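Justification of resources, computational component.

The compute hours requested in this renewal are based largely on the per-chain cost of generating structure records like the one below. Each record pairs the submitted sequence with a full structure-token output. That output is archived, and it is also reused by downstream analysis tasks.
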Amino acid sequence: MKNPILIFALILIFSSCAKKNSDQTDQLNEESEIYENNPADGFDIEGSDPLAIVFADKVMEAMGGRKAWDETRYISWNFFDARTLVWDKWNGNVRVDFLKEDLKVIVNIHDLTGKVFKDGEEMTNTDSLTKYLTKGKDVWINDSYWLVMPFKLKDSGVTLSYLKEDTTLAGKQAHILELIFKDVGVTPENYYEVWIDSDTNLVSQWAFYRTHSEPEANFVLPWEDYRQYGKILLSGNRGKRKLTDIKVLEAIPENTFTTFETVVL
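The structure output for this chain reads:
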């Protein structure tokens, strides 16, 4: 007869191992859920093409991955020699220094608080302050999209469609996605077509339409010269237009979002 005590002991050992393996699997699944490319609240999952979502996730991975993007805090850049921006992704503070007029805006994009320095003095009038804080946020919406759009393919208010496979103006094979917007941004009637390189999964070109009814794009520009910045890839080459002085930083001067003094990053 088999020893019942031995059998019971073996059952306990197997149960313990199974529980340990199960706990490890659960932990791995939890980590995977945290760092997979989860959509932002309000992303149109039901209205988007599953294939388009797959390519959006491929782009995120090629750019460094969701974890790297979430861990990126400070980004600064020069927008077409018109203005410089410093953005704290974690708390929403943005500093915009206009280069062609005497204007500096420090604004929190979440609650529209901040301060404005114009024509040699700080603004105190409530209406004027609101006007220029709103301008600062609108500038950030536009300028940051030119830099980090590939990370925002599954943003709130976005619907993604897979259009076709075709070549870019440079003759490179790519998959084309369509982005339309609803109730987001300054101009939600705009829409974009985005080319994703078949080899690298990086955005290689985009086309901009003011409205969906326009037969031709207002512009078609490349996304070229990707470089490593911190943990992520970014591109500043838009053909005739260039985003320059791009930086990803772990720390910035303490007075960046508190005074209008020139800061050196």
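The domain at 50-249 is CATH 2.50.20 (outer membrane lipoprotein receptor (LolB), chain A). The chain is about 30% helix and 35% strand.
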